[in-house]
Every structure is written in structure tokens, then in C-alpha cells.
Design a protein that fits this description.
The complex is a heterodimer of chains A (about 180) and B (about 160). Chain A is mainly alpha-helical and about 180 residues long. Chain A has a domain of about 110 residues. In chain A, helix 3 crosses helix 8. The model of chain A has no long low-confidence stretch (mean pLDDT about 90). Chain B has a single domain, classed as 3-Layer(aba) Sandwich (Aminopeptidase). In chain B, about 25% of the residues lie in helices and about 35% in strands. Chain B has four helices and nine strands; from the N terminus they run E-E-H-E-E-E-E-H-E-H-E-E-H. Chain B has a nine-stranded mixed beta sheet with strand order 6-1-2-3-4-5-7-9-8. The longest helix of chain B has 17 residues. The radius of gyration of chain B is 15 Å and the shape is globular. The model of chain B has no long low-confidence stretch (mean pLDDT about 95). Classes of the chains: A mainly alpha (about 180), B alpha+beta (about 160). At the A-B interface, helix 1, strand 1, helix 2 and helix 3 of A face strand 5, helix 2, strand 7, helix 3 and strand 9 of B. Strand 1 of chain A pairs antiparallel with strand 5 of chain B, so a sheet runs across the interface. Chain B: This is N-acetyltransferase domain-containing protein.
């Protein structure tokens, strides 16, 4: 049987890549040297690289959030907005100035004391479109999707609180057989 | 995400989803190189053509949070896509980029994807995916990991 040449190995490089460790000892030893090398490389990372990574993380988390129902007590829209603003700006007031709203209004939305108005979300869409332009693909409508996804999940998970009261107000005067 | 049909140069939309229990009986060793049932304890993902749902690539991953790392355990393209006669190009790249997305989603600026191929093929991963070699381990981190994600993100 003909043995494999280097060319064959390269042609098959993506067919059957086995990357498992043979032992715990081997894994720990390689992990230690890898971590050491990574920490050295991390020292050379610029602030810009770190901001880019955080913003890409935010985008991926928002995409993951809208893909599945999430019934929890978190304020997802407000939390994502907080990460977005705090990643880019040294103070939240600067962001408020940049989208021409008052710092108080921004604070109320971030702290979930007030729902964002349409105009707020539209300005956020324009702002994030510009920010992400040079970082990665970004669906600007995702802010709306997060906002309404959270509303939907909250509404569906709190049916016990509102359903009994509201059912009394709902009639079918022209019911379908 | 797309793969390129080598005969025509046409682009085909693909999707990556977790392998479900029912999939394992179709993932034969003769077509997908490994016994994938043994990987059930890990995160296993399949790359499928959106049009036909045909599975043309598989990857298994281990998240190592204490090291901000996602380790690729096994990766394969389907047998029809090996070597020079492959039907589609970009299968492994999309799977590695998917692992990179998971790493960045979890660990942001600390994100790392690692693998440890046989020495003969290490150079392929260094050249094609811009990975760095430390001992026996190849890894991709910031800033290259973001470039890799963008390279295989065709929504842009």
C-alpha cells in the first residue's frame, strides 16, 4: 500500500482532523504553555482591538437572544444598551449628546425606568450602523428586535398576572362555529 | 454563511446547527471519518446546505472557560469534499469561524480557538487560517479571530 506523501496530508488536512488530547497530563502541559504565549500576545493588544472584540461580542449576544424565548427578570434591551454605550464612550453624557437626547432620558432608559421612544431607537439604529460599519456585519434593526422580543417574552411569561382580569373584558359576540 | 461549488464557482448558503440525536445514525464513519457518537458529551455541530439540508461538515468543540478558550476536538468535511476532488470549498473554514464566533461571544477580547493537528498538516492551518503555533497547539486569538469571523460572515 502506498504511503501518504506530504501533499496527500495537506489535501486531506480538513478530512478527519483529530485534535483530542491523549492524556490529562498532555492537555495541562500544553494549556500552560499556550496560556503563557497568549498572555504575552495580549499585552500587545490595542484599546481599539479590545473595543472591537467587545462590540462583536455584544452583536453575537443580541443575535443569540432574539433567536430563543427567554423568560427571566433581566432587562435585556437596557443591558445591551448599557454595554454598547459603556464600551464606546468614556461617559454616558457624551453618548447622550451625540444622539441629541438629555442625559436624564438616557439614564432612565438604561436603568429601565422608562421605555425608549421610537425616536430613541431610531437614533440608536443610525448610531450603531455607523459604529459597526468598520467592525462587522450588523443588522441595525436588531435593537427593535431585542426590544420587542423582550416585550413578547415578558408578556407571555406573566399571563397569570394579567390574563384573569382581561379575559372578563374579552367577548366573542360573533363567534365562529 | 456560504460555501463555493468548485465545479461552477457558484455560492451556496449553508447553516450550522447542533447535531441532534437523530442525526448520529446518518453520520457514518466511512463518510465522516470518525465515530461521532463518541462525541455526544461535547458540543457537536453540523454544517448543512440550506437548500437540501445535506450535511457536509461536522465539528466537535470543548469550551474551556477558565482559559477563555474553545478547543476544536474533531473536525471533518464529508468524504465527497476531501482533497482535490472536493465538491464545495469553505466547509472547514465556516466551521472554524463558527467556533471563533462562540469564543468571541463567550470571552470577547480574551477569546481563543485552539486545535492540535498532526505536524504535517499544521502548516495548512497556519497558512489558511492565520493560526499561531505554540508547542503542538495552534490557536487563533485577537485580532486575527475577528478577521476570521468577518471573512466567513457573508451577511456583510
Amino acid at each position: 500500500m502506498k504511503s501518504k506523501t506530504n501533499k496527500d496530508f495537506i489535501a486531506d488536512a480538513e478530512y478527519g482532523l483529530d485534535s483530542r488530547y491523549n492524556s490529562k497530563k498532555e492537555r495541562e502541559s500544553e494549556a500552560a504553555s499556550l496560556m503563557e504565549a497568549r498572555l504575552m500576545r495580549m499585552k500587545n493588544l490595542s484599546k481599539e482591538h479590545i473595543i472591537r472584540a467587545k462590540l462583536m461580542q455584544l452583536k453575537l449576544k443580541m443575535e443569540a437572544y432574539i433567536e430563543q424565548p427567554m423568560y427571566d427578570d433581566q432587562n435585556h434591551f437596557a443591558d445591551f444598551l448599557k454595554i454598547y454605550v459603556d464600551t464606546i464612550y468614556s461617559t454616558r453624557n457624551h453618548f447622550a449628546q451625540d444622539i441629541n437626547i438629555t442625559p436624564i432620558r438616557l439614564s432612565q432608559v438604561i436603568n429601565n425606568h422608562r421605555d425608549p421612544k421610537d425616536e430613541f431607537i431610531m437614533k440608536l439604529m443610525i448610531h450603531s450602523e455607523k459604529v459597526f460599519e468598520k467592525i462587522c456585519s450588523f443588522k441595525k434593526e436588531i435593537w427593535y428586535q431585542v426590544y420587542f422580543h423582550e416585550k413578547l417574552c415578558d408578556t407571555m411569561s406573566s399571563q397569570e398576572e394579567w390574563r384573569t382580569k382581561l379575559e372578563k373584558d374579552v367577548k366573542l359576540s360573533e363567534a365562529i362555529d | 454563511m456560504n460555501v463555493i461549488e468548485t465545479s461552477s464557482g457558484n455560492s451556496h448558503i449553508v447553516e450550522i446547527n447542533p447535531v441532534e440525536d437523530g442525526d448520529y445514525k446518518t453520520l457514518s464513519k466511512s463518510r465522516f471519518f470518525f465515530d461521532w457518537k463518541k462525541e455526544k458529551a461535547y458540543e457537536v455541530y453540523k454544517l448543512q446546505l440550506s437548500r437540501t439540508s445535506e450535511i457536509i461538515g461536522i465539528i466537535s468543540l470543548e469550551k474551556i472557560p477558565e482559559e477563555w478558550r474553545v478547543h476544536i476536538r474533531l473536525l471533518t468535511v464529508s468524504k465527497d469534499n476531501r482533497g482535490k476532488e472536493k465538491q464545495y470549498d469553505g466547509i472547514a473554514g465556516n466551521l472554524i469561524a463558527y467556533a471563533a464566533r462562540i469564543a468571541v461571544k463567550e470571552y470577547a477580547e480574551y477569546a481563543c480557538v485552539s486545535l492540535r493537528p498532526k505536524s504535517q498538516i499544521a502548516q495548512h492551518y497556519i497558512d489558511k487560517y492565520n493560526m499561531k503555533l505554540t508547542g503542538m497547539t495552534l490557536s487563533i486569538e485577537l485580532p486575527e479571530i475577528l478577521d476570521l469571523i468577518n471573512q466567513y460572515d457573508h451577511e456583510k
